[in-house]
Here is the input.
Amino acid sequence: MINSLRGFRDLLPPESDLFARIEAAAREVFGLYGYQELRIPTIEKKELFVKSTGDTTDIVEKEMYAFTDGGGREVAVRPEGTPGMVRAFIEHNLGQTGRNAKFFYVGNMFRAERPQAGRYREFTQIDAEYIGNPSPAADAETISMLLALLNKLGVEGCSVELNSLGCGDCRKNYREILLGYLRGRAERLCEPCRGRIERNPLRALDCKIDGPWLAGEAPKLQLCPDCAAHFADTQRLLGAAGVPYNVNLNLVRGLDYYSRTVFEVRSTLLGSQDAVAGGGRYDDLVKSMGGPAAPAIGWGMGVDRLAMLLKDKPAPDNAPKTFVIAASKEAGDRAFALMTALRAAGISSDFSNFTASMRSQMRSADKSGATFALIIGEDELKAGTAAIKPLKAPGDQTPVPFADAPAQIKKLLQG
Here is the structure.
Protein backbone atom coordinates (compact mmCIF):
# COMPACT_ATOMS: atom_id res chain seq x y z
CA MET A 1 0.00 0.00 0.00
CA ILE A 2 1.27 3.49 -0.90
CA ASN A 3 0.43 6.08 1.76
CA SER A 4 0.31 9.86 1.40
CA LEU A 5 3.45 11.89 2.05
CA ARG A 6 4.03 13.36 5.51
CA GLY A 7 2.53 16.82 5.69
CA PHE A 8 0.10 16.09 2.85
CA ARG A 9 -3.39 14.73 3.42
CA ASP A 10 -6.67 13.68 1.93
CA LEU A 11 -9.49 16.02 2.88
CA LEU A 12 -12.50 13.84 3.69
CA PRO A 13 -16.13 14.57 4.57
CA PRO A 14 -17.27 16.18 6.78
CA GLU A 15 -14.10 18.33 6.86
CA SER A 16 -14.21 18.80 3.08
CA ASP A 17 -17.78 20.09 3.50
CA LEU A 18 -16.49 22.57 6.09
CA PHE A 19 -13.80 23.81 3.70
CA ALA A 20 -16.45 24.29 1.01
CA ARG A 21 -18.62 26.25 3.46
CA ILE A 22 -15.70 28.54 4.38
CA GLU A 23 -14.90 29.17 0.72
CA ALA A 24 -18.55 29.86 -0.12
CA ALA A 25 -18.79 32.38 2.74
CA ALA A 26 -15.59 34.06 1.52
CA ARG A 27 -16.96 34.44 -2.01
CA GLU A 28 -20.16 35.96 -0.63
CA VAL A 29 -18.29 38.51 1.49
CA PHE A 30 -15.86 39.36 -1.32
CA GLY A 31 -18.84 40.09 -3.55
CA LEU A 32 -20.15 42.63 -1.03
CA TYR A 33 -16.82 44.47 -1.15
CA GLY A 34 -16.41 44.45 -4.94
CA TYR A 35 -13.68 41.79 -5.20
CA GLN A 36 -13.24 39.65 -8.32
CA GLU A 37 -11.78 36.14 -8.39
CA LEU A 38 -8.38 35.64 -10.02
CA ARG A 39 -6.86 32.18 -10.45
CA ILE A 40 -3.08 31.94 -10.71
CA PRO A 41 -0.76 29.05 -11.65
CA THR A 42 0.46 26.55 -9.09
CA ILE A 43 4.02 26.69 -10.47
CA GLU A 44 5.91 29.91 -11.26
CA LYS A 45 9.48 30.89 -12.01
CA LYS A 46 11.54 30.54 -8.86
CA GLU A 47 12.90 34.07 -9.20
CA LEU A 48 9.36 35.45 -8.76
CA PHE A 49 9.31 34.32 -5.13
CA VAL A 50 12.97 35.12 -4.44
CA LYS A 51 12.62 38.66 -5.78
CA SER A 52 9.32 39.45 -4.10
CA THR A 53 9.39 37.51 -0.85
CA GLY A 54 13.08 38.09 -0.12
CA ASP A 55 16.10 35.79 -0.27
CA THR A 56 16.58 35.92 3.52
CA THR A 57 13.06 34.77 4.43
CA ASP A 58 12.42 31.30 5.83
CA ILE A 59 10.14 30.62 2.85
CA VAL A 60 12.96 31.06 0.33
CA GLU A 61 15.84 29.78 2.46
CA LYS A 62 14.22 26.64 3.89
CA GLU A 63 10.59 26.01 2.89
CA MET A 64 10.14 26.50 -0.84
CA TYR A 65 9.63 23.47 -3.09
CA ALA A 66 11.91 24.46 -5.98
CA PHE A 67 13.35 22.33 -8.79
CA THR A 68 14.65 22.38 -12.34
CA ASP A 69 12.04 21.21 -14.85
CA GLY A 70 12.57 19.20 -18.01
CA GLY A 71 13.28 22.38 -19.98
CA GLY A 72 16.07 23.45 -17.63
CA ARG A 73 13.97 26.21 -16.02
CA GLU A 74 14.25 27.01 -12.32
CA VAL A 75 10.67 26.81 -11.06
CA ALA A 76 8.90 26.62 -7.71
CA VAL A 77 5.54 25.44 -6.43
CA ARG A 78 3.88 28.53 -4.97
CA PRO A 79 4.54 28.99 -1.22
CA GLU A 80 2.21 32.02 -1.07
CA GLY A 81 -0.19 33.88 -3.34
CA THR A 82 0.75 37.57 -3.41
CA PRO A 83 3.74 37.35 -5.81
CA GLY A 84 1.67 35.47 -8.40
CA MET A 85 -1.21 37.91 -8.01
CA VAL A 86 1.10 40.87 -8.54
CA ARG A 87 2.73 39.21 -11.57
CA ALA A 88 -0.72 38.67 -13.09
CA PHE A 89 -1.68 42.29 -12.32
CA ILE A 90 1.38 43.53 -14.22
CA GLU A 91 1.34 40.99 -17.05
CA HIS A 92 -2.33 41.55 -17.95
CA ASN A 93 -2.47 45.32 -17.27
CA LEU A 94 -5.20 44.83 -14.71
CA GLY A 95 -4.75 48.38 -13.46
CA GLN A 96 -6.13 49.70 -16.78
CA THR A 97 -9.61 48.14 -16.64
CA GLY A 98 -11.30 51.15 -15.07
CA ARG A 99 -12.47 49.11 -12.08
CA ASN A 100 -10.97 48.98 -8.62
CA ALA A 101 -8.19 46.40 -8.74
CA LYS A 102 -9.65 44.22 -5.99
CA PHE A 103 -8.92 40.52 -6.37
CA PHE A 104 -9.26 37.37 -4.33
CA TYR A 105 -8.32 33.78 -4.87
CA VAL A 106 -8.66 30.44 -3.17
CA GLY A 107 -5.99 27.81 -3.71
CA ASN A 108 -3.38 25.47 -2.28
CA MET A 109 0.09 26.54 -1.16
CA PHE A 110 3.15 24.41 -0.53
CA ARG A 111 5.90 24.83 2.07
CA ALA A 112 8.43 22.27 3.28
CA GLU A 113 8.02 23.11 6.96
CA ARG A 114 7.53 20.86 9.96
CA PRO A 115 3.91 19.67 10.10
CA GLN A 116 2.02 20.60 13.26
CA ALA A 117 -1.57 21.22 14.36
CA GLY A 118 -3.35 23.04 11.56
CA ARG A 119 -0.16 23.42 9.50
CA TYR A 120 0.58 21.13 6.57
CA ARG A 121 3.06 21.13 3.71
CA GLU A 122 0.14 21.54 1.35
CA PHE A 123 -2.50 23.89 2.72
CA THR A 124 -5.47 25.86 1.47
CA GLN A 125 -5.32 29.63 1.61
CA ILE A 126 -7.73 32.45 0.84
CA ASP A 127 -6.04 35.65 -0.35
CA ALA A 128 -7.42 39.15 -0.88
CA GLU A 129 -5.46 41.91 -2.63
CA TYR A 130 -6.40 45.58 -3.22
CA ILE A 131 -3.95 47.24 -5.61
CA GLY A 132 -3.76 50.94 -6.43
CA ASN A 133 -5.27 52.71 -3.42
CA PRO A 134 -2.84 54.45 -1.00
CA SER A 135 -5.60 55.65 1.35
CA PRO A 136 -5.84 54.56 5.00
CA ALA A 137 -9.48 53.82 4.14
CA ALA A 138 -8.24 50.91 2.01
CA ASP A 139 -6.37 49.57 5.04
CA ALA A 140 -9.41 49.86 7.29
CA GLU A 141 -11.72 48.35 4.67
CA THR A 142 -9.41 45.39 4.08
CA ILE A 143 -9.19 44.59 7.79
CA SER A 144 -12.94 45.15 8.25
CA MET A 145 -13.66 42.73 5.40
CA LEU A 146 -11.52 40.05 7.04
CA LEU A 147 -13.41 40.48 10.32
CA ALA A 148 -16.73 40.43 8.47
CA LEU A 149 -15.84 37.04 6.99
CA LEU A 150 -14.82 35.61 10.36
CA ASN A 151 -17.99 36.95 11.96
CA LYS A 152 -20.12 35.45 9.19
CA LEU A 153 -18.55 32.07 9.88
CA GLY A 154 -19.14 32.43 13.62
CA VAL A 155 -15.45 32.37 14.56
CA GLU A 156 -15.00 33.30 18.22
CA GLY A 157 -12.12 34.45 20.40
CA CYS A 158 -10.42 36.58 17.71
CA SER A 159 -8.46 39.82 18.10
CA VAL A 160 -6.70 42.14 15.62
CA GLU A 161 -3.04 42.98 16.23
CA LEU A 162 -1.96 46.14 14.37
CA ASN A 163 1.35 47.88 13.67
CA SER A 164 3.10 50.04 11.09
CA LEU A 165 6.49 49.24 9.56
CA GLY A 166 6.75 52.68 7.98
CA CYS A 167 7.93 53.54 4.48
CA GLY A 168 11.30 52.87 2.87
CA ASP A 169 12.87 55.92 4.50
CA CYS A 170 11.58 54.94 7.96
CA ARG A 171 13.00 51.44 7.60
CA LYS A 172 16.30 52.69 6.17
CA ASN A 173 16.93 54.81 9.27
CA TYR A 174 15.72 52.04 11.57
CA ARG A 175 17.85 49.46 9.78
CA GLU A 176 21.04 51.28 10.73
CA ILE A 177 19.96 51.66 14.36
CA LEU A 178 18.91 48.02 14.63
CA LEU A 179 22.02 46.77 12.82
CA GLY A 180 24.28 48.50 15.35
CA TYR A 181 22.23 47.05 18.20
CA LEU A 182 22.37 43.50 16.84
CA ARG A 183 26.11 43.65 16.07
CA GLY A 184 26.73 44.33 19.74
CA ARG A 185 24.66 41.28 20.71
CA ALA A 186 25.61 38.86 17.95
CA GLU A 187 26.67 36.19 20.44
CA ARG A 188 23.10 36.02 21.77
CA LEU A 189 21.55 35.51 18.33
CA CYS A 190 20.75 32.13 16.84
CA GLU A 191 22.97 30.93 13.99
CA PRO A 192 20.56 31.87 11.14
CA CYS A 193 20.16 35.41 12.50
CA ARG A 194 23.91 35.86 12.90
CA GLY A 195 24.32 34.83 9.29
CA ARG A 196 21.86 37.35 7.89
CA ILE A 197 21.93 40.42 10.14
CA GLU A 198 24.18 42.26 7.67
CA ARG A 199 21.81 41.51 4.80
CA ASN A 200 18.49 41.96 6.58
CA PRO A 201 18.62 42.82 10.29
CA LEU A 202 14.82 43.25 10.51
CA ARG A 203 14.42 39.50 9.96
CA ALA A 204 15.77 38.91 13.49
CA LEU A 205 12.63 40.56 14.89
CA ASP A 206 10.50 37.88 13.24
CA CYS A 207 12.70 34.97 14.30
CA LYS A 208 10.93 32.35 16.39
CA ILE A 209 14.02 32.04 18.62
CA ASP A 210 15.31 35.62 18.95
CA GLY A 211 12.10 37.53 18.27
CA PRO A 212 10.63 37.13 21.79
CA TRP A 213 13.59 38.61 23.69
CA LEU A 214 14.28 41.25 21.03
CA ALA A 215 10.65 42.39 21.33
CA GLY A 216 11.34 43.56 24.87
CA GLU A 217 14.87 44.91 24.40
CA ALA A 218 15.48 46.09 20.83
CA PRO A 219 14.93 49.74 19.81
CA LYS A 220 11.53 50.51 18.26
CA LEU A 221 10.86 51.85 14.79
CA GLN A 222 10.16 55.61 14.66
CA LEU A 223 7.65 56.58 11.97
CA CYS A 224 8.08 59.65 9.77
CA PRO A 225 5.25 62.24 9.93
CA ASP A 226 3.48 60.88 6.82
CA CYS A 227 3.57 57.28 8.03
CA ALA A 228 2.50 58.30 11.53
CA ALA A 229 -0.48 60.18 10.06
CA HIS A 230 -1.39 57.20 7.86
CA PHE A 231 -1.30 54.86 10.84
CA ALA A 232 -3.38 57.24 12.97
CA ASP A 233 -6.00 57.58 10.22
CA THR A 234 -6.17 53.79 9.82
CA GLN A 235 -6.86 53.41 13.53
CA ARG A 236 -9.48 56.18 13.46
CA LEU A 237 -11.33 54.53 10.58
CA LEU A 238 -11.22 51.11 12.23
CA GLY A 239 -12.73 52.72 15.31
CA ALA A 240 -15.45 54.33 13.19
CA ALA A 241 -16.26 50.88 11.74
CA GLY A 242 -16.43 49.35 15.22
CA VAL A 243 -13.45 47.06 14.63
CA PRO A 244 -11.62 46.27 17.89
CA TYR A 245 -7.83 46.16 17.61
CA ASN A 246 -4.66 46.26 19.65
CA VAL A 247 -1.55 48.22 18.60
CA ASN A 248 1.37 45.80 18.87
CA LEU A 249 4.71 47.50 18.18
CA ASN A 250 6.43 44.10 18.13
CA LEU A 251 4.38 42.82 15.19
CA VAL A 252 6.70 42.57 12.18
CA ARG A 253 5.42 39.90 9.74
CA GLY A 254 8.01 37.71 8.04
CA LEU A 255 8.06 38.91 4.42
CA ASP A 256 10.35 41.60 3.02
CA TYR A 257 7.75 43.37 0.89
CA TYR A 258 5.57 44.71 3.73
CA SER A 259 5.42 48.45 4.41
CA ARG A 260 3.31 50.69 6.61
CA THR A 261 0.24 48.87 7.99
CA VAL A 262 0.68 45.22 9.03
CA PHE A 263 -1.84 43.16 10.96
CA GLU A 264 -2.70 39.71 12.24
CA VAL A 265 -5.93 38.16 13.47
CA ARG A 266 -5.28 35.78 16.34
CA SER A 267 -7.50 33.38 18.22
CA THR A 268 -7.22 32.44 21.87
CA LEU A 269 -8.60 29.01 20.92
CA LEU A 270 -5.54 27.92 18.89
CA GLY A 271 -2.87 27.82 21.58
CA SER A 272 0.65 29.12 20.92
CA GLN A 273 0.29 28.99 17.14
CA ASP A 274 -2.60 31.45 17.32
CA ALA A 275 -2.53 33.32 13.98
CA VAL A 276 -5.65 32.79 11.85
CA ALA A 277 -4.87 35.36 9.16
CA GLY A 278 -2.47 38.18 8.48
CA GLY A 279 -1.36 40.73 5.95
CA GLY A 280 -0.45 44.33 5.35
CA ARG A 281 0.58 46.96 2.86
CA TYR A 282 3.15 46.31 0.13
CA ASP A 283 3.33 49.72 -1.52
CA ASP A 284 6.65 49.13 -3.32
CA LEU A 285 6.21 45.53 -4.50
CA VAL A 286 4.40 46.15 -7.81
CA LYS A 287 7.01 48.69 -8.95
CA SER A 288 9.93 46.52 -7.79
CA MET A 289 8.58 43.70 -10.00
CA GLY A 290 8.53 45.86 -13.12
CA GLY A 291 5.02 47.29 -12.89
CA PRO A 292 3.68 50.79 -12.30
CA ALA A 293 3.92 52.57 -8.98
CA ALA A 294 0.88 50.99 -7.37
CA PRO A 295 0.39 50.94 -3.59
CA ALA A 296 -1.38 47.82 -2.37
CA ILE A 297 -2.68 45.99 0.65
CA GLY A 298 -3.82 42.41 1.19
CA TRP A 299 -4.13 39.45 3.50
CA GLY A 300 -3.97 35.69 3.49
CA MET A 301 -5.96 33.27 5.63
CA GLY A 302 -5.17 29.61 6.20
CA VAL A 303 -8.36 27.58 5.77
CA ASP A 304 -6.85 24.56 7.58
CA ARG A 305 -6.36 26.56 10.78
CA LEU A 306 -9.71 28.30 10.44
CA ALA A 307 -11.40 24.92 10.10
CA MET A 308 -9.96 23.94 13.49
CA LEU A 309 -11.99 26.76 15.06
CA LEU A 310 -15.19 25.67 13.31
CA LYS A 311 -15.03 21.89 13.58
CA ASP A 312 -17.38 21.82 16.60
CA LYS A 313 -19.92 24.20 15.02
CA PRO A 314 -23.15 22.61 13.78
CA ALA A 315 -22.62 21.45 10.21
CA PRO A 316 -25.26 21.98 7.53
CA ASP A 317 -27.38 18.93 6.70
CA ASN A 318 -26.00 17.59 3.42
CA ALA A 319 -28.19 14.48 3.38
CA PRO A 320 -30.43 14.10 0.32
CA LYS A 321 -34.01 15.22 0.81
CA THR A 322 -35.35 12.19 -1.06
CA PHE A 323 -34.23 8.61 -1.64
CA VAL A 324 -35.84 6.79 -4.56
CA ILE A 325 -36.57 3.03 -4.35
CA ALA A 326 -37.77 0.71 -7.12
CA ALA A 327 -39.09 -2.86 -7.02
CA SER A 328 -38.11 -4.02 -10.51
CA LYS A 329 -36.15 -3.16 -13.65
CA GLU A 330 -39.14 -1.42 -15.24
CA ALA A 331 -39.87 0.41 -12.00
CA GLY A 332 -36.18 1.36 -11.89
CA ASP A 333 -36.52 3.13 -15.24
CA ARG A 334 -39.44 5.16 -13.89
CA ALA A 335 -37.56 5.79 -10.66
CA PHE A 336 -34.55 7.10 -12.55
CA ALA A 337 -36.76 9.51 -14.53
CA LEU A 338 -38.46 10.61 -11.30
CA MET A 339 -35.10 11.22 -9.62
CA THR A 340 -34.06 13.38 -12.58
CA ALA A 341 -37.28 15.42 -12.27
CA LEU A 342 -36.73 15.92 -8.54
CA ARG A 343 -33.21 17.24 -9.08
CA ALA A 344 -34.40 19.53 -11.88
CA ALA A 345 -36.84 20.99 -9.35
CA GLY A 346 -33.97 21.68 -6.93
CA ILE A 347 -34.68 18.74 -4.62
CA SER A 348 -31.62 16.67 -3.74
CA SER A 349 -32.16 12.99 -4.43
CA ASP A 350 -30.24 9.73 -4.26
CA PHE A 351 -30.63 5.96 -4.73
CA SER A 352 -28.66 2.76 -4.17
CA ASN A 353 -29.26 -0.12 -6.58
CA PHE A 354 -32.66 -0.64 -8.23
CA THR A 355 -31.90 -4.34 -8.76
CA ALA A 356 -31.36 -4.93 -5.02
CA SER A 357 -34.19 -6.11 -2.77
CA MET A 358 -36.67 -3.55 -1.43
CA ARG A 359 -35.43 -4.26 2.10
CA SER A 360 -31.83 -3.58 1.08
CA GLN A 361 -32.83 -0.33 -0.63
CA MET A 362 -34.80 0.76 2.44
CA ARG A 363 -31.75 0.16 4.64
CA SER A 364 -29.73 2.37 2.29
CA ALA A 365 -32.44 5.02 2.47
CA ASP A 366 -32.33 5.03 6.28
CA LYS A 367 -28.52 5.29 6.29
CA SER A 368 -28.56 8.16 3.79
CA GLY A 369 -30.27 10.50 6.24
CA ALA A 370 -32.92 11.40 3.64
CA THR A 371 -36.13 13.07 4.77
CA PHE A 372 -38.44 11.07 2.48
CA ALA A 373 -38.33 7.83 0.52
CA LEU A 374 -40.15 7.68 -2.82
CA ILE A 375 -41.09 4.05 -3.46
CA ILE A 376 -42.17 2.64 -6.81
CA GLY A 377 -43.42 -0.91 -6.29
CA GLU A 378 -45.38 -3.02 -8.76
CA ASP A 379 -48.71 -1.55 -7.62
CA GLU A 380 -47.40 2.00 -7.86
CA LEU A 381 -45.95 1.31 -11.29
CA LYS A 382 -49.35 0.16 -12.58
CA ALA A 383 -51.09 3.17 -11.02
CA GLY A 384 -48.49 5.67 -12.29
CA THR A 385 -47.70 6.82 -8.76
CA ALA A 386 -44.89 6.87 -6.22
CA ALA A 387 -45.41 6.31 -2.49
CA ILE A 388 -43.95 9.05 -0.28
CA LYS A 389 -42.72 7.60 3.01
CA PRO A 390 -41.40 9.85 5.83
CA LEU A 391 -38.05 8.62 7.15
CA LYS A 392 -37.37 11.05 10.00
CA ALA A 393 -40.80 11.12 11.63
CA PRO A 394 -43.74 8.76 11.97
CA GLY A 395 -46.19 8.86 9.10
CA ASP A 396 -48.09 6.81 6.57
CA GLN A 397 -47.10 6.30 2.95
CA THR A 398 -48.91 8.70 0.62
CA PRO A 399 -49.36 7.96 -3.09
CA VAL A 400 -48.71 10.77 -5.54
CA PRO A 401 -48.73 10.80 -9.38
CA PHE A 402 -45.25 10.83 -10.91
CA ALA A 403 -45.73 14.27 -12.46
CA ASP A 404 -46.89 15.77 -9.14
CA ALA A 405 -44.15 14.27 -6.97
CA PRO A 406 -41.65 17.21 -7.11
CA ALA A 407 -44.31 19.78 -6.18
CA GLN A 408 -45.70 17.57 -3.40
CA ILE A 409 -42.23 16.95 -1.94
CA LYS A 410 -41.55 20.71 -1.96
CA LYS A 411 -44.78 21.34 -0.03
CA LEU A 412 -43.90 18.68 2.52
CA LEU A 413 -40.37 20.03 2.98
CA GLN A 414 -41.72 23.55 3.55
CA GLY A 415 -44.45 22.45 5.94
User: Anything to note?
Assistant: Residues 15-32 form the longest helix (18 residues). The chain is about 40% helix and 20% strand.
